[in-house]
Each structure stands twice: as C-alpha cells, then as structure tokens.
Amino acid sequence: MTQQELQHLYWRVGFGINPTNFNSLPKNRQQIVDAIFDNSKSISPLKIDLSFMHGVTVKDLKENPKFAQELRVASRKKLANLNYAWLNQLVDAKELLREKMTLFWANHFVCKDNHVVFAQKFNNTLRTHALGDFKTFVKSISKEAAMLKYLNGKQNKKNQPNENFARELMELFTLGEGQYSEKDIKESARAFTGYNHDFDGNFRFKMKVHDQGEKTFFGKTGNFSGDDIIDIILEDKQCATYISDKIYRYFVNPKPNKKHIEAMANVFYKDYNIENLMRFVLLSDWFYDDENVGAKIKSPIEYLIGMVKIVPVKFGREKDLLKIQKLLGQTLLNPPNVAGWKGDKAWIDANTIMVRLKLPSVMLNNAVISSGENDELRKKFFKKNKGKLPIKVTVDWNTFSENYKNINPENLQDYILQGNSNKGTADFLKTLSKTSKQEYCVQLMSLPEYQMC
Amino acid sequence: MDRRKFIKNSALASSLFFVPNFVKAFESVTAKQLGYKRLVIVQLAGGNDGLNTIIPHNNDLYYNARPQLAITKGIIKLNDDLGFHPSLSPLRSLFDNGELSIINNVGYPNPVRSHFRSMDIWQTASSSNEYLQSGWLGRYLDKHGDKPYNALEMDEQLSLAMKGEHFNGIATNDYKVLYNTAKDPYFKKVLNHYNDAHLSEHNLGYLYQTMIEAESSASYIFENTNVKSSQESYPQNGFAKQLKSIAQFINSGLDTKVFYTSLGGFDTHAGQNNKQTKLLSQYAESVLAFVKDLKRNNTFEDTLIFTFSEFGRRVKQNAANGTDHGAANNVFVIGENLKKAGFYNDLASLSDLDGNGDLKYDVDFRSVYATILSNWLNVSAKGIIPSKQKTLNFI
Q1: Are A350 and B133 an interchain contact pair (Cβ–Cβ within 8 Å)?
Q2: What interface predicted TM-score (ipTM) does this complex get?
Q3: In terms of CATH architecture, what is B37-179+234-376?
C-alpha cells in the first residue's frame, strides 16, 4: 500500500496514523485490513466510577425528594466524566475500528440521557454490537433504558400507545423516510407496548400493559412482538441499502455513489453482519480512489482527536475539553436531537471555521501562527499572555519529534494534510521557512485543508 | 465599443488584478437590499413561568393552585383580569404607549416538556413529531440574505434558529475578539494566495468560502460599528450587554436583519419567586434601556422585539415552591405601530387544563412567526414555516 492509501485507511477506521507506525505494518492490503479487524475483536467498555449510586434504591428517591435532586445533579456532573472517559478512549484504545464505529452508531442510534448509569450502559451497548449482527443490535437498542426514556418507549402502553419510538425506528434507524405508512407506525407501536426498565436500567417487559391483539404490519398479520417487528423490517432490502448508504457517506465519501452502495447492500443483506460489510468496504479498490481521499470534512471529534494523536497534549482542566467540544459544535453524549448531527458542511459556519483555524495555535503554540511578520515580537507578547489563554494544556512536542523524526520538513504537509490542497495554498506553503518542524506543523493545522480527511 | 467605454472597461479589468482573490470571490455575489426592518429575538431559556409573569389577579383558581407561590403583592394591574409581575414595572410605559402586545396561550399541538426538544421545536418551527435540522430564521435568510452578518447572535455559538439549509448567521459575544482572530496575519496570507473560482462547489471550496465570509463579516462589523452610537445607560448584567451591542449595531446602520439574544435561568423547579423576580427585573430594565436607546436614535420604529420561552410552567405549584415544566405560554411583541397593542387575547381557562395540568394553547407559535415574516419582514412564510399557518393581526 502507498503512504497515501495507508493514511486514508487509517483516517477512516481511526484518526490518522503517525509515520513511525508505517514500518510495523504488514505489507499488503488484505493483511493490513485483517490486522485492523483482529485488533477490534476485543471490547473495552467505558467504566467510570459510579459509586455514588451504590446502594441507592427506588424507595430512597421516592421518600426523599431532596436526595433525589442531589443525585440528579451528581449524575449530570458524572456525565462530564463519562464524556472525558470516552474522549480518552478514542485517543488510546487499540480497538481503532470498533471505537470509530461506536462513534458512528452513536450518531445513528441517537440517544441522550442525563442518568449517567443508563448513558454509560447505552454507550457500551453501541460498542458491543458495533461490528456485530445488526439485527441483534437493533433489538438490543429497542430494550435500552436510555432509549426507552428518550423516545418514550416506557410510556407506550396498551391503552395509551406512544408512537415515538416506532416512528424513529423506521424513519431514522432502519429504513429512512417515506418507506412505511402511518398505519405501519401505529401497528408497530402496539407491538412495543409493555417495554420498560428497572431501577438499574435492565430491560423489563410488563405483560399487563402489552397489547396482545393482532397487528397488521407491512402486509403481515399476527400477534407480533417488538422483536418480530424488527425481523419484518429487516426483511426489506431497503434497510440494507439505507444502512449501507449511511456507512458509505461516513466512511467513504459524503457524496453517495449508487453503484458502490448497491454492492454494499448486496453484501449486507445476506446476513446483516456489520463486520462483513466493513471488510467489503475496506478491501474494495474504489475505497482507495483519489476522489475519496480527503473528501470528508472532519467532525469536531475527528478534528480534535486527530490533532492530539499528532501532538499529544494533557488538559489541565477537564471542563476545557467540554468547552472546546461546545465551540466546535459537537459534545459527545449531547446530540442536538434524535436525528443526530447533520455532519459534513453543517459542521462549518463562520464561527466554527474560525475556532478550528485558531485552536491548534492556541492549544499548541500560545496562540501564535508564524507568518514571517513580527513573529518574535508576537511570540513575546503572547507568551506574556499565556495565563490568559482560555484553555490550559501541557504539550508533548517530544513525542511529535520522535514520531516525525524521519520526515523531512519539506514533506511534512503530505503527512499532516489529507487529499489535494488548493494550488495557491500549496504554492504559499513552499514559500514558508521550515526551520522549525513544530512551527510548520502548527501552520499546517491552521489551514482549511487540515479540516479534511 | 466606443473609446470611452473601452477605457472604462479595461481600467476596471486591470484594477481587478490588484484586488486579492478572496475579495473578488466574495464580492461576486451581488449584494441584495434587505430593507431596513429589523427583528430582535429574546429567548428566555429554561421555561419562564408565564402565569407569574402575566398574573390572573382576579382568579381564585390561580391562588388555589399556588398557595405559596401566587404573587399577591405589588401586581401591576393592566385590566380587570391580568397584571404584570412587579418586576415588569419598567415595561408599564411601553404597555401604556401601545408599544407592547402580549399574546397569551401560545404553543403547539402535543407539547413536549423537554427543554431541549421544545427549544428545538420553537427554533426550527417544526411540529412536535417532526425533526428539522435548520432554523426558521436561517431559512428566512436562505431566501433573503447573503452575508453571515445579516443575522447576528450575541453568543459564542450559533443557535439552530439561525442556521439555514445554506445560510448561517454569525455568533459573537464580542465582535472585537472576532475581528482580532480573523485578521491574524497568517490567515490573510493564506487567503491572498488562494485561487479557485469555484468556491463552494466542493467541500474544500466551501471551507475557504466560509473562512472568507468570516473574515469579511468580522471586518464589516468592526469597521461599521460606531461604539458611540449608544449613549444610553444600561443595567449591569450580561443580557443588558447583549442588547447594548445590538443597539450599537442598529444605530450604526449595519445591514443586519435578525439579532438573537438569550437570557437563561428560568427553570425554576424550586424557590421560584426570588429567582424569577431577579430575572424578570433584568429582562424588563434591559429592554426598557434598549428601547430608549433606539428611540433616541430614531431606529425604534424599524425594530421589532419578540420574546418567547420554550414552554410555560405547570399551573399547580410543586412542593419545593417551584413549578414544573408546562405547555402554552405568553409571548411579548414590542414595537411601534402595533395593530393590536395590549392584550391580543384572553388567558386560557384555568379550569380546562390538559392531562398534565397545563394551559392549553390556542395560538400556534408558528402563526406568530408567519405573521412576523409577512407583516413585518414583508416576505412570504412559504418555504420558511413548513406548516400552513394563518396570519394574525398584531402587526
């Protein structure tokens, strides 16, 4: 594989790759892809300290509203820890692809819960099934406490059906808009009645409020359960196509290619095995086509983790990371709504582009981007103002130097940037003095080109 | 072609060589005239308790539902049924002048009681079972704006309301910081070298275009804002600061149609009275200073101020001397020449509540938006407000 192909592959299954790692990789595509799947066989669930909930019972909460309120506040604080733990996992985990897919599924099965126990459980369910059987995955999601709360599944009862989950199950999770009738929604909602969860977030089926009557759904009639409904939905090839399209736009190119998506759907429809689908994508020749390299606008998380993977940093305050996510427009565990983040061009507006262009220098270089004009003076000025910077970080340039020691500064752009640069910008880069690899790295990260992967 | 024309054309052509590429690209979009009418949105975040804001002071049901929480002292009675919370006294003069219209019972079918979701619904003008990824003001500017500074939000990040399908407004709580960031010499150099006529056709082009617009908007705002244009003294709080900046922008004649501000903290589940008293004072005092400022500069007549919250609160108080999330609520429209000043409609019945014990809506918030679009901004609501809504007659 060429250096460009390798970087492309690693940007899609992870957050890029440092040149020192090139040599340790096997030589051909099949072996490299196999190794990626091997590394993702294991599952490292997120486990933050949730001892504040130990021994608490439903009774405690009912009898003591003040205590209940305190727990809610504590839970919300813990969500920040969970957010932090997830970010660290994205930086450190060896299960690159599993983690990248977890991130993908989190914006597919979109859910938000302020109850940190449920939120962590939901997140780990995404991780567990990320490369598994899609059918089992959807069924597990339908029984998650966080989801039962988020889309009102627990309010869905025989006498008072709530259609929220049934609608989103088809519209967002499996088939896409317009692939079903309002009647299908009503009938399938009845099949999910009685779904509930216990205090610890385990699934509980309440037969008493379950509608055991006959339902007619997608032309079939029977006393269907929720699982039956999911089976029937997945019989429709449209589901395989819908998921393939979404995976293509996330992992290959935001501009869909019908032919390739159809080929993916054919593979996926056979057994709904996510790993097989991903293997097919990563081994296809078209995956490595020039038009796909650097075609994606990085999500804020891809942008941030990618940067930290090149130049490791330690954040002085956890809350700075929350602030950065907020300014960039993507806070993990806090999606805008059940449709998730729109992605692609929607990441970028006049504000977020300025934050993105400025953040590397703020984080790594006291807010200075060398430009050849009064650089020394500006450096002195900014150094004095270091304490006033909005974020506190310790930068580990040594690791960067080690990882990039064999790279000639003249070629650094080929490793930091993905895809083609604008011609004028490429010419401009040639004129820069590259006496410091660090300074040049910051300059490269402060370009629109750096937003692409 | 005569000689004169030839010289004129070639002079124009040669002068273009000296204009940096990015300016050319930016200016290739012809500027549209947006007109001078302006809209200022005030979002009371958290769900303001409308019943203790506009108080049904003659209604036993109100006092019975709120034994500890009902306002009993200092109500500013506006008619036989309704009155202001004491903190709203600064707005009394606007009410008396016919510059304030209060629309009661504004909401939507199947109300959602989650802050997040209900705020989304208000900002996107969707139905409660519909998820839109663009905001109503963003869609208005998709059609009728072209520069990010046509819509300014006084915050660090842009609300969904201000994001269109193609158009995005600009958010800044300090336009000087925005300017200083954008004019970084490195960015200038990058843009001066940039060459691509097909800016927005691919993703990289879109990034450059947005960067150019950010730079250009930051300069536009910085260079055209006259700080001295606001002489009025404002209260000392963050919300007043937002309004003061807006007054400077309006009085300086910035080509901005929509301004967005937010005042948070209204989620009063416990100990409501102290909190709400403080917040409503901040709101009313700041708005009064803002209106005075605009009046002094003769810009009030072209400005409409719209205040809303994502939901009202439950009629019955809770055990913690607070209120829980409710449904329909009142909205305020402030401006000159209102068609129907004072109370637009009566408060909904306190005995005929919905299943949760909340007020039922009778005015759809989207019909308020549609009215603002057609009667104030003079554009059709079609394609901006997704559902068909009737126009009301408050402006």
Answers
A1: no
A2: 0.93
A3: 3-Layer(aba) Sandwich (3.40)
